[in-house]
Fold this sequence. Notes:
About 40% of the residues lie in helices and about 20% in strands. The protein is an alpha/beta fold. It has one domain (about 5-155, about 180-205, about 250-255): Vaccinia Virus protein VP39 (Rossmann fold, 3-Layer(aba) Sandwich), CATH 3.40.50.150. A seven-stranded mixed beta sheet has the order 3-2-1-4-5-7-6.
Amino acid sequence: MQTDFIKEYWEQQAKTHGESHVASWGDNFMLDLEIKTIGKYITEGDNVLDVGCANGYSTFRQLESHKVQSITGIDFAQNMIDTANDSKRKRNIEKINFQVGDVRALNFADESFDVVYTTRVLINLPTWEQQIEGINECIRVTKKGGKIIFSEAFMEPLVLLNSLRSIKQLSPLVEHDFNRYIKKQKLEHYLNSSGFAFTNDEFSSVYYLGSRFLRDLVTETNAYPGFTNPINEIFYNIELQFSGGSFGIQQAYIITK
């Protein structure tokens, strides 16, 4: 299993926040961008695997938008899965199945799903070697011709943003203790050397530039708790139309098997 303190963090998040999106992430605009990006690769009739489904918040959103055959959500935090199953019972939904699972050892046969995606899951694994295990498992359970989407956090844009912030004497952004951001260069080298065709979707670059840099220059951030600063919504709406510049820490790699 994951190192204990990482698992305990997410177990506590589920207890504290229940069915709220905050159990997974407080940034509702980023969650929405992530959901929309992943949704572009889900088509009618697909069997979908959501790896790292947390309390099911995003899983239910995908089901609302797509006429899939089924969605299976897995998470390594028992409390997250308990909350997701409670929500499923309240909604009386049959097309979703939630269960405890480990991305490094998925309990599914080869080529079981049309679409497999992770949402900030690989970054909860403490080493690159374990992240590779998770990558390979997601690819293994995807059908030939299917899509694998890794929506994760990456190191290079963090460095780029911090370079900007340092120019204006802003404190650097840091990884949480429970995260190990992935290096884009390392991931791309691994995928290329393994013979996988992939594309990179920078779906959050403008939003990050606005919400993690420009916001701190033009507003008193302490006046807005959490992610309620109105600048966030402004740059979210811009992001829906325009992106680029490699500032988005959250990016998606889309692999065609």
